[in-house]
Amino acid sequence: xxxxxxSISSDLLFxxxxxxxxxxxxxxxxxxxxxxxxxxxxxxxxxxLYQPNGSTQTPTFPHGGVMVVGRDFGTHxxxxxxxxxxxxxxxxxxxxxxLTLLDEAGCDPRSCFFxxxxxxxxxxxxxxxxxxxxxHRDKKFLAACRDFFIVQLEMMRPxxxxxxxxxxxxxxxxxxxxxxxxxxxxxKAIDVAEKSIQTExxxxxxxxxxxAVVALTHPCMRPVNVRLRQYDLLRGRNAEKAMLMEAxxxxxxxxxxxxxxxxx
Length: 264
What we know:
Blueprint: H1 4-20, E1 30-31, E2 66-70, H2 76-84, H3 93-104, E3 112-116, E4 121-122, H4 139-156, E5 160-164, H5 167-173, H6 187-192, E6 197-203, E7 208-216, H7 222-225, E8 230-231, E9 234-235, H8 236-250
Helix pairs in contact: 1-4
C-alpha cells in the first residue's frame, strides 16, 4: 500500500529534478532516471526513504532529520534490475554496511533521506557503478547538480548531513560553509585537519544552518577503508561511530547520554 501523503516530498523532488535536468542536458554516458522505483533505493532512482525489503508501506518523508548524500546511483543496468525487484536489497554492500553503522550509532534509518549528489544513471557498455562519474566532464551539468543539492536541502532542512565517500565532501563544499579541507578530495585531509565533523554549518543560499555535518567512508568500501579513519583518539570503525553519534547528540536527534571522546 502506498501512502501518497507520506511520499509526496520525494515525488515532488523527482518532478523538480526532471524539470531541472531535461533529457538533452545529460552529458555523454549519463542518462535520466525513467521513474521512481518502489521500495528501498537512494534518490533519484527511488524515493530515498527507508523501506525494509518486502514492505509495501511508503514511509513518511523525514523533514528535519538526517540527510545521507552518496555520489550517484550507478548504472542504468543496476537501476533496471533493482526496479524489477521492487527496490535494492538490504544485503547489498552499500545498504548492509550503512545500515549497520546507523544501528551502531543509534540512528533510526526512518529518520533519514538517502540521496545522491549527482543526478542521472551511467549508461553504455562500459558503464560501472564505481569510479569517477561522467558528470565531472560537463561543467554545466555539474553546476546544475550543485544547484539541485540546494533544492534538496530546502525541501528537507536536515539537522544532520552525512556525506559518503571521498568525492561528496568536495561537492557539498561548494554550497556549505565547511572547512577548506573538505575541498581536498580525500578523507585523510579532512581527518588530518580534524574537521570530519563540523557543527552549525551555514547554507548561504538558504539562510539556513545544518546543526552537524559528517564525512564518512563510503559504505560499499567500508570494510577496506574505514580502518584509515581517525577522530580524536579513536581509529577505524570506532572513529566513525563516534563522529555520527556526536553529530546526532549535538543536533538533538539522540539523547545526550553518550559520552563523547572529547569528554573522556
